[in-house]
Amino acid sequence: MLPKIILAFTLVAIGIGYFPKFRMNRTTIALVGATFLIITGGISYKSALKSINLDTLVLLFSMMIVNAHFVISGFSELITHKIIKYANTPKKLLFIIIFSSGLLSAILLNDTIVIMFTPITISILISLKRNPIPYLLGLGMAANIGSAITPVGNPQNMLIASYSGLKFLDFVIPLFIVSIISLFILYFTLLLFFRKEFTEREIIHQYIPNFKIYKPVLLKFILTTIVMFILFLFRYPVSYSALIAASIFLFTRRIKPEKIFQKIDWSLLVLFSSLFVITSSVETTGISKTIYLLYNKYMFTNMYLFSFSIAILSNIVSNVPAVMLFAPFIKSIGNSHEYWITAAMASTFAGNLTILGSIANIIVLEIALKKGIKITFMQFFKIGIVVTIITLLVGIAWLDLIF
């Protein structure tokens, strides 16, 4: 019983972002919560170590190194300057952020996109003196939506591709159109909820950042990034490809290693490691199985109940464990193409319901918090619940039509 209580408190505190009367953030809450789960027997120490996905940590670490060179080369400031120059209205700026984040997340992991784009977006918003909240919500939620398009867009889609044997186009053909529609739904929802921010017709460029391009570093960044993308296209593991790129960057005579490692967000790596343990403890404590048994008899009645069942569980135990839990049951009803694609859509779109629904959400909020920008659980949820329900309904209707 005690591990379940600790787990509940930990999940709530991570969602809120702090623990009342304690100097704790999401990272320390997650680490302490994971440790107490081990101490109280919620998960064994050996199982906790095994639950930490090194592949994800290598990807995060490698992309932080790539992102550091992205900044040092001056490329990020160049992009910032170009976007500021082109996006002459708040609506156009929001549109660019949402669709660039969404479409790129279909090619790369959504977590990778938000790691790279959140600092750039914040830089742009600070330069233009805009309210950062709607744009950052758009960035994170669009990354979730767009990642549904392909089997390499997010970890749960990779699992589904592995379990089902579905190929690249098996995802793209049914999910591309509904994901694009969902990006528009997100765009108009943010315009509706933040009407005051988007009433201006033009952005007054009160400040255009001065920037300096370091051409040798920039050239190396461009060439190495191209190599990384080629490796992605040839289906090398994403983390392995990113690690190769990071190693090429670190093989240098121009930049001191200390300058790079100062830009590594070590607390984010600790947060991820702790979340893996917490997520696994949801299964070891029996909570996930209990939840599944509560609505097992109803979930396969129709696609709406099936989708919302996965969506709810994805926000309790996270989308990857939810897919892992439901996989044996989907196989037991005939390894249905329709159920697998619906699971991919529902578990991914469900990531926009709460902060805890997707790791991409946490990355955006944590990077923003370090820049002094705080997005509360309720600020996220009031947008997320609208976007999630509408996109899920549209997604189910579309898949029901084409299958």
UniProtKB/TrEMBL annotation:
It is found in: Cell membrane. The keyword Repeat does not apply. GO terms for cellular component: plasma membrane. It holds the Pfam family CitMHS. Residues 23-350 form the Citrate transporter-like domain. GO terms for molecular function: arsenite transmembrane transporter activity. It is a multi-pass membrane protein. The chain crosses the membrane at residues 27-45, 57-75, 95-126, 172-193, 213-234, 268-292, 304-327, 339-365, 377-399. Signal peptide: none annotated. Keywords: Cell membrane, Membrane, Transmembrane, Transmembrane helix, Transport. Belongs to the CitM (TC 2.A.11) transporter family. This is Citrate transporter. It comes from Deferribacter desulfuricans (strain DSM 14783 / JCM 11476 / NBRC 101012 / SSM1).
